[in-house]
Design brief:
By secondary structure, the chain is an alpha+beta fold. The chain has three domains: 171 residues, Beta-Lactamase (2-Layer Sandwich), CATH 3.30.450; 119 residues, Beta-Lactamase (2-Layer Sandwich); 69 residues, Arc Repressor Mutant, subunit A (Orthogonal Bundle), CATH 1.10.10. It is 46% helix and 19% strand. It has a five-stranded antiparallel sheet, sandwiched between helices. It has a four-stranded antiparallel sheet with strand order 2-1-4-3, sandwiched between helices. Strands 7-8 form a two-stranded antiparallel ribbon. Strand 7 and strand 8 form a beta hairpin. Helix 12 crosses helix 16 and helix 13 crosses helix 14. The C terminus is likely disordered.
Amino acid sequence: MTQEAEVLSCLIGQVYDAALDRALWPSVLTKSFEFVGGSGAALFSRDKTAPRGNVVYDVGIDPYYKQLYCQKYIALDPSTTRYYFAEIEQPVGTADVIPYDEFLETRFYREWVRPQELIDFASTVLDKSGTSAAKFVVFRHERNGVVDDETRRRMRLIVPHIRRAALIGRMFDLGTAEAATFADTLDGLNAGICLVDAGGRIVHANAAGHEILATGNVLRAVGGRLVACDAQIDRTLRDVFVAAGQGNAALGSKGISVPLSSSPADLWLAHVLPLTSGIRRNAGMTYSAVAALFIRKAVLEVPSAIETISKLYKLTPSELRVLATLSEAGGVSLVATALGISEATVKTHLQHLFAKTGTTRQTELVKLVAAHASPIGG
């Protein structure tokens, strides 16, 4: 466990370095799949309004099969329906989505998985909206075996950091952050940002950060220190700043995503980037800062139409896959081909869907999905 802790601490540091230097993501993904146990890894997104997926970073994937997945097989991947209602940061394997015996019969397995000698995938949702999802996936080769409890445990150790680094990187949107231009870069960002020392003293804040402090709804400056309006949240921030000063290992145990308010209608979050290790150290030393706080108002997560319908009508995973595929592909034969099941099985699931939703035709099911996708219904 001591060796694991050392490897994990080093990996977490490199994950946060990648938040500032995107060129480091392939190396981070390599070390991630080695830590979890696998033959490759990827960060990619899926937008239901677009016909293909987008692989942002990947290692260990044959370019030919990556292109095939993005252009064709992402629509046939049974795990895609999972992301309509999956809990963020929770790792799952194929058997959590579809009975493994059924998975072996799918066209996706026969044509895309098996030719690569893959056997399973450990994946987790990093972020999602009503129409899109971003996820992190570790590919399991035959020599790795299927996803088990140990795989899930190791995924849980790194996924929160990967998610936060990705969110920070999206707000930062930089290549390499050089210390000499670090503060100037922060000043040009719309996100509120404050650089602080281990005692919480503000050593720099950008324009958006000053505006948040001046408003004083969630954070304010008191005697040059950053103070949360909520006393308990303020104590949490103090602990995080101290941990940031002690390096990646201490911060990893504390976590770096801090809610700044408790009202669901007005939720603010702070993502904390430590500046005491790796390539972040130069920037931190220049400004005597141990951490950068990226402050943003949380966007209310809008459930997808499929997620809403699944919960409302208590659909089984198999019924959900048929409904999701029907809404995108259309027709019994096309759904059967896409899912790798017989037309008779599709028809059986459709009968269950009709009974549960009070519909009688396939077109009514598609309209039901469309109606729930609209904020005003129909």
